[in-house]
Amino acid sequence: MGKKSKHEKSGIDLPRPDGAEPGAPMKNKEYRRLLRPLHCELVALQEWVKASDARICIVFEGRDTAGKGGVIKAITERVSPRVFRVVALPAPTDREKSQMYVQRYLPHLPSGGEVVIFDRSWYNRAGVERVMGFCTEEQAQQFLQLVPTVERAIVDSGVILLKYWLEVSEDQQTLRLQSRIDDPRKVWKLSDLDLKSYTHWYDYSRARDEMFHFTDTGWAPWYVAVNDDKKRGRLNVISHLLSQIPYEPLERPDITLPDRRGPHGYTPPRQPLHWIPTPY
């Protein structure tokens, strides 16, 4: 076979769907204009979830720097954290390591009237743990065999389970990691594990492909989103998410602000207050 072109080498190693070739990066003004009606629909979804006691679980996985945090922030920007709850678990404790693998995730599944978003999930075992040697190959294979059954039980209990995989190209991953190195606002996002993982691009590809093979099921399919352009990716994910949930917007009552009551003798305090400086 001939040598790969630079474009082939640095592109996404999954076959793109029709019409998914990257266009020009979306401008922020256009992004905010398109995001506003989606935010309105997310609020409508929220009110339906509260009224219907629905339970929704959304899993976000993907390569390092794939933009999971940005997508989750876009989803939760205009909704209540009491309804939309984000779960991002730290590394397991020694006690949790001795438990059944998925045990520490189960208490975080949604109750009635909740949307739970996992910023990484039990699929850590199929990805980073497997590639970086934090679990044995036997443990990884056991997980891949068992997780469809666990997810079937979750879905059969009435939970709407959505699983998203965010994909980026090699070039985009390099640019985003370099930005974390160069930008002091982003340095907290960079870990030693990110740097180690960077050298394992194709190991992660193989792990992802096998994960899809075992866990892309009829009751809990994987939805793949190209996220080289973060703004387009966020809009696409939110639009798709809304299309997968059978919510019905509730009728909004007409609301008129009541008149405020008068001061009834109130006077401002004489105590000097500690006002902050106003340099802006």
From TrEMBL:
<comment type="function">
    <text>Uses inorganic polyphosphate (polyP) as a donor to convert GDP to GTP or ADP to ATP.</text>
</comment>
<protein>
    <recommendedName>
        <fullName>ADP/GDP-polyphosphate phosphotransferase</fullName>
        <ecNumber>2.7.4.-</ecNumber>
    </recommendedName>
</protein>
<dbReference type="InterPro" id="IPR022486">
    <property type="entry name" value="PPK2_PA0141"/>
</dbReference>
<feature type="domain" description="Polyphosphate kinase-2-related">
    <location>
        <begin position="27"/>
        <end position="250"/>
    </location>
</feature>
<comment type="subunit">
    <text>Homotetramer.</text>
</comment>
<dbReference type="InterPro" id="IPR022488">
    <property type="entry name" value="PPK2-related"/>
</dbReference>
<feature type="compositionally biased region" description="Basic and acidic residues">
    <location>
        <begin position="8"/>
        <end position="19"/>
    </location>
</feature>
<comment type="similarity">
    <text>Belongs to the polyphosphate kinase 2 (PPK2) family. Class I subfamily.</text>
</comment>
<dbReference type="GO" id="GO:0008976">
    <property type="term" value="F:polyphosphate kinase activity"/>
</dbReference>
<dbReference type="InterPro" id="IPR027417">
    <property type="entry name" value="P-loop_NTPase"/>
</dbReference>
<keyword id="KW-0418">Kinase</keyword>
<feature type="region of interest" description="Disordered">
    <location>
        <begin position="1"/>
        <end position="26"/>
    </location>
</feature>
<dbReference type="GO" id="GO:0006793">
    <property type="term" value="P:phosphorus metabolic process"/>
</dbReference>
<dbReference type="Pfam" id="PF03976">
    <property type="entry name" value="PPK2"/>
</dbReference>
<keyword id="KW-0808">Transferase</keyword>
<dbReference type="InterPro" id="IPR016898">
    <property type="entry name" value="Polyphosphate_phosphotransfera"/>
</dbReference>
